[in-house]
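Fig. S4 source data, part A: sequence.
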Amino acid sequence: MSVPIETRLAPRMHYAWIVAAVTFLVLLVGAGVRATPSVLIVPWEREFGWTAATIGVGIALNIFLYGMIGPFAVAIIERFGLRRSVCGALLILAVGTAATSLMTAPWQMVLLWGIVVGSGSGMVANVLGATVAGRWFAKRRGLVLGMLTASSATGQLVFLPMLASLAVGQGWRSVSLVVAAATLVLIPVAALLLRDRPADLGLPRYGETAVTPTPVLTENPARRALRGLQVGLRSRDFWLLAGTFFICGASTNGLIGTHLIPACIDHGIAEVTAAGLLALMGICDLIGTTASGWLTDRFDSRKLLAWYYGLRGLSLIFLPYSFDYSFYGLSLFAVFYGLDWIATVPPTVQLAGKSFGEENAALMFGWIAAAHQIGAASAAWLAGYVRTDTGSYLGAFVSAGLLCLVAALMASFVGRREPREPALRPLPA
């Protein structure tokens, strides 16, 4: 008689690490799928004659839904289970990206890359990492969350050089098909290895000795998510965290993740070389965000956020001038900026847990992350508009840098005043 895989692994390794490893892969690929249009902007301009502003509408909608789906994704996972939710999201991504190879009109690009891919990728975004870290880990949660967050950001960057090379050599449609195939391969892996909660295997969370019973949730996922938003809107800390994360999204996914390659091409740097810079950022981000998780377990999250946003702001102000030093100046920017790409997530999740209760951290972070993607969507469109109107990204880069300095100041005020109403502990089912 065969022995279940989780039983064979349990004596040597807590199954939480298996779930974390699969989640790492899902977040890596899911984020790579969402970021794929950034290497297709120039090919679409050349083949269809679409402007950066037109393409920016589809990308902005993609990024917007990537964030707005987050809190509903948490509620859906709570209601229907981790494994079924993740497999369903991966299937949506595979079908949606494959269908984009047939598009010929802007509305099709907006529908497929914007709505379908944006919705599917929103189910496998950072809120998934926050959910897994909270469900499966009592200790080393910050470190695990840092690693999972790093995978989502790294996935947006590491695959881009390969996809850019594929687009140049085989055409942009081949990129859509390869991305769809990579997503499809992950579905059986997730179905085989993911488990909803430690209690389903008779295990405690990593770092605990007692098994926590699986809660029975029957509430409509949309209602639970909206109730969380209602509570958040009454909280000063929620507005501060959402505001800083709005700026975080505007200065990362929306601006650099979407427009660095076109900006490099404007300065005579080859497309594949520019994508290599994003890959370098991804590698640095894996280091920086994992380290951020480790630091979050040990230091004041407010101070960490202030440092992260301040340093990012200075690097973005330097970026327009780095082009004067060609690839070497950009490489310096890529390393410095990459270490700070999305290091803000672990301390933000921790502060959300302190404000609203650990059991609600993932849900409330979902709404905070929605602000992140609203900021990213705004920057993706506005930066494209600035480039179309002025022929340069200078104004977009400097403005984003100044906003980051504002975010550094905002972060220092989180948690400094007790809320007038009790924190949300817990959201009743």
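Fig. S4 source data, part B ends here. Residues 228 and 345 are 19 Å apart (CA to CA).
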